[in-house]
Amino acid sequence: MSKLIKVLMNKDSSCLPIWFMRQAGRYLPEFRKIRSNNKNFIKLCLNAKLSSTITLQPIDKFDLDAAIIFSDILMVPYALNQEVNFEKDKGPILSNFKIDDFLSCDARSFKFKLQPVYDLISITKKKLKKDKSLICFIGAPWTLIIYMFGLKSKDNKLNLDLLERKKKEIKLTLDKLNDYLCLHIDSQMKSGADAVQIFDSWAGMLPEEKINDFCFEPNAKIVNFCKKNNYPVICFPKGINNNYKKFNEIVKPNGIGIDFNVDPEWIRFNLKDVCIQGGMNPRTLLLDDDSIYREAEKYIKTFKDYPYIFNLGHGLLPETNPDKVKKLINFIRENN
Ligand code: CP3
Questions:
Q1: Strand ranges in 49-116 using DSSP code E only, listed in sequence order
Q2: Whose CA is nearest to atom 43 of ligand 1?
Q3: How many C-beta neighbours within 10 Å does residue 87 have?
Q4: Distance 243 CA to ligand 1 centre (A)
Q5: Are β-strands 66-68 and 133-139 bridged in parallel, bridged antiparallel, or unpaired?
């Protein structure tokens, strides 16, 4: 059994697996070389061979304990017939959401469009050593709805008026989206992934009175699906502060990713029966070595004798120097 699965499923605190969100891509020169010859990001994600190479780049370079597949949470709206474009320095741009187009989708064509992702997983699984894990992922319904309906302004504020105006459409979309996301998880796991991570990157935007309907409940439905199928599942509801406790009590995933705005001590004493992942601010990696080691030590010490996966509180930043990543990994392995 791989380290990641041992700590996630058996709550075995004797090992400390390491992987990083956004380890495949952006900051790696090896990735940027491939990317410069592949201008269309979606097409690159649909190239199973190249995506598999990118998935394995950080494993070959750093000997990490888990690989996360090179893909994107927005491959799901793409497969549901919404146009998705990635423009340099602008982030993703989606065509206007059309409910009729969405409702006319079916499971067969959804799976057909995403087949290269499933091929990428089976190719990568064969190449990965047995003691490593392969992580697949989805965007949580709320985070996908934000992009699909364009609910976020440029300064990262939630457009509450639009949310109110589109209430009925959003409710309908949330329910159907749940089915497609479960199908995507099922297909990824059956292709050879070992665990699934659910990214709820914009959970922290929700006002308190909406967090149950848009974050807890949709995550709980998907986690129940995973648990029924014995698929190890990690949730990452970013930015929800003290609601991490409630999230854990309601959603009950195998693992919870924490961000850098919550105190790890508080998490350790308030989140029961769950494996914790991450927390360290990715900005720390832009500092000098001693600051990096001090911060890493804080997390290692706090979660000593506790089921913990070393990771960050969000993805590696594009400006991160890969040498710093290597130094951090060496430090963790030497001090554990
Ligand atoms: O973690 C990994 O290395 C695996 C690959 C991965 C990507 N995106 C590749 C990618 C994963 C797990 C994601 C998840 C993702 N995508 C999230 C959730 C995590 C988070 O960061 O909050 C979100 C919100 C997205 C949507 C998305 N995709 C945005 C906002 C952007 C543009 C800005 C950015 O983050 O780079 C992307 C593009 C994207 N996804 C790139 C990569 C490597 C950069 C593409 C490029 O080279 O231009």
A1: 66-68, 84-87, 91-94
A2: 25
A3: 9
A4: 25
A5: parallel
Would you say residue 13 has pLDDT above 90? yes
Residue nearest to atom 9 of ligand 1 (CA): 72
Q: Is 137 helix (H, G, I), strand (E, B) or coil?
A: strand
Extract the tokens encoding 221.
Answer: 């439905």
- Sequence-ordered strand ranges (E) for 150-269: 195-200, 233-237, 255-258
Closest CA to 3 of 69, 68, 67, 65: 65
pLDDT in tens, 280-292: 999 999 999 999 9
Probe residue for ligand 1, chosen from 20, 22, 57, 198 as the CB with the greatest number of ligand atoms within 8 Å: 22
* Res 240 pLDDT > 90: yes
Q: Whose CA is nearest to atom 21 of ligand 1?
A: 315
pLDDT digits (tens, 9 = 90+) for 228-237: 999 999 999 9
Query: Is pLDDT of 156 > 90?
Result: no
Test site for ligand 1: of 20, 52, 72, 134, most ligand atoms within 8 A of the Cβ? 72
Helix (H, G, I), strand (E, B) or coil at 198: strand
3-state secondary structure 9-67: HCCCCCCCCECCCCCCCCCCHHHHHHHHCCCCHHHHHCCHHHHHHHHHHHHHHHCCCEE
Is pLDDT above 90 for 27?
A: yes
Ligand 1 atom with minimal separation from the 201 CA: 22
267 with 244: CB under 8 angstroms? yes
Residue 24 Cα: closest atom of ligand 1: 3
HSE toward the beta carbon, residue 171, CA cutoff 13 A? 7
Q: How far is 35 from 294, CA to CA, in rounded Å?
A: 34
pLDDT confidence of residue 216: 98
22 C-alpha to ligand 1 centroid (Å):
7
| Residues found in the chain | 336
Ligand 1 centroid – CA 137 distance (Å): 12
